[in-house]
């Protein structure tokens, strides 16, 4: 499984391609971000997310724009942009697809899923399909280990994956079928996601469930067995609906793949 | 057996919204806190015995009391929501399901240390969690819980949700501060500690999400209530995260000191037909334990007494189908990738560790390599600014301690004796890669 960490790719990092989409609006939004902090430079990470949302990658023009707004040199901004894994120097596809291959997910099947996807998409790690739709990357632990093996699309969770569900997922993305995260929203484009990360909400926080099945595993057991924390000053932190009833993720239209998984491991 | 407090509202409809949170008593604790003197809030948290849930277990109230209130500079609260330690998956579901629990804790904690601005530094790779945090902060602003003259008390606070950009090292508190200042996330030399010179050189408290989220319940129910749960030196309830080869992985909120045997039992046992081989008590940076440690109380002292650390209570369960050398190699590759490069022992050492472990996993190593590996670990541990490199050596030295024969078997067989398919969740489903 040593091929997982093949970072090397022969594709050169493109320098300016002369088609920067940075506008006065972008600059104004950069200034707005800087104004949110006691010291403007704190906005550099959000500003670089904003550059990616506009440019599809971190471009030389984007770096210069950040530098201008913050009174830094381009080299100072580059030093930051090259430190963080989420900032990409090469153009990213419409969908960034991540496969966790850190130990737990790898052991649970992440390595096999990643190998399958590389073959299925005919790309290597951190490479983009020819149609520009999908950039595939093996990612580090994404804090969803109780749903292993885990994948992400534009940093939304896809839980309890298999090689089959993984290939189906990328096929759906390439064909333009609407795809929903089992613990998130309908999948937007990578650029739209980057704009949210920059600090400009897209109003979609109310989509999706409170959590998947694993998040609620202990709570459900406690409800079944009437286990609660001790009573405090403010009275018992009793549940509003102590009798088993419809749960948020059981509501129509709130299905979670994680809840309706056919993975018998979780039900036995 | 289980004591849901932080997770208690996670089964409520739209638990992430302000209206739902308030239906279950949300923001009552804030009103209580704002009627107290800030110093009394600090005392309450001190008395509760709450210890940092990010891994180190430092007493939260004591950390707050280190803030020099006679220092004229602004004070800051920074929430470490950069949950990235392999195996750790408690803060993300908490913020997804009930971001207001954290936001209410942020406001109370900021009031206690007299901070005027608080930051929630959340890792960038969790889009929907960021959406919910952004919305929760906006709802709290609209409701008058954040802003100027909060609830008519004259207290002003701004809260900023800040997304990181993919760097494990930023979970280290001083690296997080550099990152939040718009720099490469590299740890700082201490002292000075952040309480004296933190963000922008000002007094700063940095706490884990779960620590801050525990504060409203402490204020609401009392320090004694909190300390009635748990063990002598490890108080309260906490989120234990079970992952890997168990029947029902997930979040289990229990009093400090529950054992892995009890937790695995609650989670329906190790997956059918298999047995526990090794586990991490608190993420990959905590030395591995085995089946002989099933009855160790999972509190700071109990896990420490068997040579590991409670860490983040990230219980990663591996059964007998898992090759420990493969597991350790992959973690080591992770540390190599995430080393920030500031300190030589870590920057160079993690590369050497990977090279040797690769050789071992592929059956091309020798017994002498094991000696070299342990020698390297000794030379790396404790010789860097932060604990990343210490964490990198933990799985290596502990796995050699418990599973030396398995390393040797790789030499004897000229390769890995395990079938990687056997350890997957779809091994029995007939799927092939």
Features:
heterodimer; A: 268 residues; alpha+beta; Arc Repressor Mutant, subunit A; Glutaredoxin; globular; B: 433 residues; Rossmann fold; Ubiquitin-like (UB roll); de novo design (two linked rop proteins); five-stranded mixed sheet; four-stranded parallel sheet; 16 helices; 9 strands; NuoE_dom (chain A); metal ion binding (chain A); 2Fe-2S (chain A); Thioredoxin-like_sf (chain A)
How would you describe what is shown here?
The complex is a heterodimer of chains A (268) and B (433). Chain A has 268 residues and is of the alpha+beta class. Among the domains of chain A are: 11-91, NADH-quinone oxidoreductase subunit E (Arc Repressor Mutant, subunit A, Orthogonal Bundle); 95-190, Glutaredoxin (3-Layer(aba) Sandwich). In chain A, 34% of the residues lie in helices and 7% in strands. Chain A is built from 8 helices and 5 strands; from the N terminus they run ααααβαββββααα. Chain A has helices at 24-35, 44-55, 60-70, 74-81, 103-121, 163-175, 190-198, 217-224; strands spanning 95-100, 127-128, 134-139, 151-153, 156-158. In chain A, strands 2-3-1-4-5 form a 5-stranded mixed beta sheet. In chain A, helix 1 (24-35) packs antiparallel against helix 2, helix 3 (60-70) packs across helix 4 (74-81) and helix 5 (103-121) packs across helix 6. The radius of gyration of chain A is 21 Å and the shape is globular. Mean pLDDT of chain A is 87; it is low at 1-8 and 234-268. Chain B has 433 residues and is α/β, with parallel strands linked by helices. Chain B has 3 domains: 18-227, NADH-ubiquinone oxidoreductase 51kDa subunit (Rossmann fold); 237-319, Ubiquitin-like (UB roll) (Roll); 324-421, de novo design (two linked rop proteins) (Up-down Bundle). Chain B is 42% helix and 12% strand. Chain B has helices at residues 18-23, 28-34, 38-48, 60-65, 91-97, 99-113, 127-142, 173-180, 209-221, 223-227, 260-266, 300-305, 324-338, 344-361, 367-380, 388-413, and strands at residues 76-81, 117-122, 158-163, 204-208, 237-244, 250-255, 276-280, 289-290, 314-319. In chain B, the strands form 2 sheets. A 5-stranded mixed beta sheet of chain B has the order 6-5-9-7-8, covered by helices on one side. In chain B, helix 2 crosses helix 9, helix 14 (344-361) runs parallel beside helix 16 and helix 15 (367-380) packs antiparallel against helix 16 (388-413). The longest helix of chain B has 26 residues, at 388-413. The two termini of chain B are 40 Å apart. Chains A and B meet through helix 2, helix 5, helix 7 and helix 8 of A and helix 5, helix 7, strand 3, helix 9 and strand 5 of B.
């Amino acid at each position: 499984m040593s091929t997982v960490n093949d970072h090397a790719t022969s594709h050169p990092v493109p320098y300016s391609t002369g088609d920067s989409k940075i506008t006065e609006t972008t600059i104004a939004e950069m200034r707005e971000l800087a104004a949110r902090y006691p010291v403007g430079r704190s906005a550099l990470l959000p500003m670089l997310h904003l550059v990616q949302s506009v440019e599809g990658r971190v471009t030389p023009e984007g770096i210069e724009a950040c530098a201008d707004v913050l009174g830094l040199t381009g080299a100072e901004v580059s030093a930051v942009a090259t430190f963080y894994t989420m900032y990409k120097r090469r153009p990213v596809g419409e969908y960034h697809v991540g496969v966790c291959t850190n130990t737990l997910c790898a052991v649970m099947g992440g390595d096999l899923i990643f190998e399958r996807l590389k073959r299925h998409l005919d790309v290597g790690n951190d490479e983009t399909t020819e149609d520009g739709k999908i950039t595939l990357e093996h990612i580090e632990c994404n804090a969803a280990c109780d749903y292993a093996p885990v994948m992400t699309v534009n940093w939304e969770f896809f839980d309890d994956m298999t090689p089959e569900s993984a290939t189906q997922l990328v096929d759906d993305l390439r064909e333009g079928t609407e795809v929903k995260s089992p613990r998130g929203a309908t999948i937007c484009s990578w650029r739209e996601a980057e704009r949210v990360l920059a600090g400009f909400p897209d109003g979609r926080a109310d989509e999706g469930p409170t959590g998947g099945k694993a998040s609620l595993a202990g709570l459900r057991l406690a409800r079944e067995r009437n286990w609660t924390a001790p009573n405090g000053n403010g009275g018992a932190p009793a549940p509003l609906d102590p009798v088993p009833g419809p749960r948020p993720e059981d509501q129509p239209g709130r299905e979670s793949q994680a809840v309706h998984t056919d993975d018998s491991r979780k039900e036995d | 057996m289980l004591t849901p407090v932080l997770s208690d509202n996670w089964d409520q409809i739209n638990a992430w919204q302000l209206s739902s949170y308030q239906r279950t008593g949300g923001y009552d604790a804030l009103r209580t806190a704002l009627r107290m003197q800030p110093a009394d809030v600090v005392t309450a948290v001190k008395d509760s015995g709450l210890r940092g849930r990010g891994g180190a277990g430092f007493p939260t109230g004591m950390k707050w009391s280190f803030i020099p209130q006679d220092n004229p500079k602004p004070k800051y609260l920074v929430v470490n929501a950069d949950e990235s330690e392999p195996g750790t998956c408690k803060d993300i579901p908490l913020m997804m399901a009930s971001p207001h629990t954290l936001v209410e804790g942020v406001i109370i904690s900021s009031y206690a240390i007299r901070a005027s601005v608080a930051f929630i530094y959340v890792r960038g790779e969790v889009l929907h969690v960021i959406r919910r945090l952004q919305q929760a902060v906006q709802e709290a602003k609209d409701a008058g819980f954040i802003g100027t003259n909060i609830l008519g008390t004259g207290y002003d606070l701004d809260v900023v949700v800040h997304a990181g950009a993919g760097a494990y090292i930023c979970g280290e508190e001083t690296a997080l501060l550099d990152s939040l200042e718009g720099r490469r996330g590299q740890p700082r030399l201490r002292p000075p500690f952040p309480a004296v010179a933190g963000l922008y050189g000002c007094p700063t408290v940095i706490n884990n999400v779960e620590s801050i989220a525990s504060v409203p319940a402490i204020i609401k129910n009392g320090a004694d209530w909190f300390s009635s749960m748990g063990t002598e030196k490890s108080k309260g309830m906490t989120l234990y995260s079970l992952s890997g080869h168990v029947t029902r992985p997930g979040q289990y909120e229990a009093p400090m000191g529950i054992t892995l045997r009890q937790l695995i039992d609650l989670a329906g046992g190790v997956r059918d037909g298999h047995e526990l081989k090794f586990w991490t008590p608190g993420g990959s940076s905590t030395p591995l334990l085995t089946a002989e440690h099933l009855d160790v109380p999972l509190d700071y002292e109990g896990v420490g007494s068997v040579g590991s650390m409670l860490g983040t209570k990230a219980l990663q369960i591996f059964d007998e189908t898992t090759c420990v050398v493969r597991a350790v190699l992959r973690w080591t590759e992770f540390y190599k990738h995430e080393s920030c490069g500031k300190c030589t022992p870590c920057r160079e050492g993690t590369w050497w560790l990977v090279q040797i472990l690769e050789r071992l996993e592929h059956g091309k190593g020798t017994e002498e390599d094991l000696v070299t590996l342990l020698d390297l670990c000794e030379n790396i541990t404790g010789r860097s600014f932060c604990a990343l490199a210490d964490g990198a050596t933990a799985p290596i030295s502990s796995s050699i301690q418990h599973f030396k024969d398995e390393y040797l078997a790789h030499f004897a067989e000229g390769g890995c004796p395990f079938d990687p398919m056997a350890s997957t969740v779809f091994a029995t489903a007939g799927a092939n890669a």
